[in-house]
Write a structure and sequence with these properties.
eight-stranded mixed beta sheet, alpha/beta, globular, 29 helices, 893 residues
Length: 893
Amino acid sequence: MSTRNLHSLFAPRSVALIGASERPGSLGATLLANLAAGGFKGPVYPVNPKYTELNGQPVYASVADLPAAPDLAIICTPAATVPAIIRQLGEQGTRAAIVLSAGLAEARDERGRSVKQAMLDAAHPYLLRILGANSAGLLSPALGLNASVAHSGALPGRIAFVSQSGALMNGVLDRARSRGIGFSHFIALGDSSDVDLGDVLDYLASDGATGSILLYVEQLRYARKFMSAARAAARSKPTLVLKAGRVANGVRAAASETGLLAGADDVFDAAIRRAGMLRVFTTEQLFSAVETLAHAKPLYGERLLILSNGAGPGVLALDALVCGGGIAAGLSPESVERLAALLPAIPPRANPVNLLGDAEPERYRQALEILLQDKGADAVLVVHSPTATVDPADIARAIAPLARGSSRNVLSCWLGGDSVSAAREIASSAGMPTFDTPEDAVAGFLQIVHYRQNQNLLMQVPPSISRTLESGRATARALVREALAAGRYLLSDPETKAILRAYGMALVETRRAADVDEAVAAAKSIGFPVAVKILSPDVMHKSDVGGVALDLDSEQAVRAAAGRVRRQLAELRPDARFEGFSVQAMARRPEGHELILGAATDPVFGPVILFGQGGVAVEVTDDHAVALPPLNAVLARELVDRTRVARLLAGYRNRPAADMNAILATVVQVARLVSDIPEIVELDINPLIADAAGAVVLDARMRLAMADRSGSTLDRLAIRPYPRELEQTIPWQGGSLLLRPVRPEDGPAHLKFFDALTPDDIRYRMFVRIRELQPSQLARFTQIDYDREMAFIATRPGPDGQAETLAVGRVVADPDNTSAEFAVTVRSDLKGMGLGRILMEKLIAYCRARGTREIVGEVLPQNSRMIGLVKKLGFEVTPTGEEGVRKLRLPLE
């Protein structure tokens, strides 16, 4: 269940308060007072058998006595009474309730169930949605609804605040009111027994009254649901997250470096980045960021120019930019020449540009005009320090038209107090994000940059596996099953490498040896020189126990080294099990970088991929980043670039750059491996040696666990990968077509497909005339969330050998999977050849398999082909009264 009946929660026409009271300090009295103070225009029905009147209002003895079923019920009665009240409300026709009562999870009813479960069971037959239990309530200021325990109301606005902490409510409301910040909704989730973070995000994503969403998060339970809802919300409006609990309470048990390094907060951070949201770390940053993003224009680059009337503030801004990881724009020669004419006393040569302390409004205006025309800058920060000779408000008026008319972001900083308040107001009204200090201004710019970066990642949904790996995947699965059947859950280096080899990764030749004689024989077979390493499931770092011997160039050297490392294991770790030796060919990579690449399993988000600087000092260097699978080359590159070692991999001095394509391919393959095989819960590749010649696995180990067979193996992934199982090859026109879900890599073919459509066909699809697809539209069509929507393409090899798109069928389901809206487009030169029917039948079969209740759509009356087709397939076709548009509907139940 998702957004069903949530309109009754957020926009009720009538409210009942169950447990209304006059006892000071009680929940019932607080709620009654807040409902009255908020100015809610609909009827409010107090319910309590102890009263006949409260505050001049009639009080009803029970739910059954109410004159009408309320849209929303607020319950603040003892925990044991809640299930019966919910049942009565459901029978009356109420579809939403806020439960402020606490202790429902701990209390038991007469059947031994928790009262919480009894409440949910009572609500289920009526699809009655519950906010809480133990919720602090909600506010919808535009309705005058204060159904909360907050000690004050909220100003109306376009920000929705969703909190997992009721205790945070009063502080945030006070802070927001003092700054004039208003809300469309303010929601305290409580225990999230029914309505959870994902449900609320889905509702707010399509709520016209909400312009941006702020989340305060303490914990998540349903990662897949949250990620789909978060990505949908972040596509349409700025969504910001403040996460509590950044510091772990204890050390997690793990059998690998990756398991130890992939901290829960790192994983949450990766999820927020992948969802296209922006994470902040204080409540001050939360409101500052939403204010900044509300004014920000699309940012197409990350280079900032700084314009100031003094050297000090400009340098402070530059310091904050560089230290914060930002990019300072360079001045073009043309800009330098033009600014030199404007400032002959101090010819500008670099960023920041200093206009001097006597800069009047016209100098600011001319300088800003020059900088906004510089192609090397993506945004400009204007900094002003008060002077006795110039009114800051006049400067703001001078630059406001330029800022308003520019496609680039212009940020402003007005140092001072009351003397610059008018300038701040003018700048803000002109759409400029406005700040008090240079450091705050740069922090605001970097928030825009990070949000843009996350938005770029939002649309990347890569395939889970390529065709060439099908046989390798079967081999890897068989090896995993064999190990589990033998009771081996911690796989040695040779066993792990056999699985990695099946996925096409480059490996150093490795053999397993049970004793010294087998080690000598393995070395002879591989060829000298070799390395001999101890095999023990109880030792994570072999070098800590002297378990590694390198550069062995003879049988005698191997025999001596194997005996020595065996004895050292017995001396230093007598408790450790000895399982033999690993014999490897020596990897001669003098310019190689030691990297770590691996996977771990997060209890909330499932598999995560870790990449960073490897070697024996991996914990000390603490240089790693994590990401959620599945990954493609774009996402893998973003993961690598978040590490410090990425700069070394790019090459320096006389050391050539490492083969980044080989590194990224290995990262993607690891992500595919753990996505495909749910039994793999930890994987360590340390080191992965990378240089200009490629990337090769030296040491690896893996931990397995029996997979949960209760549901799909894909359910453990926070993001659903490309559903290859939906691919289908069919005969068509004497040849064959491949019907498959669209992929991000289909972007170029999709552009050619669009270019082959006639203007009328585009209008039939879009209902408006469009000459070309914008990059954002193309991304939206080809980079989709397979959990929420589906787009099938009919494709075949074109004349140039590249796959061409012939037709597209798209369906988008609502969050409840009740209704799905479809659209089908056939290339204009291929109409009348059955492609439309093929795609429609594919969409109908897909929706039936998902349990969707109906397929709906709209079509212009001129599109007679589509109208005729859907009638043959059983659709109802009815006019809507809107410019002749026809509504199409196919019930599937």
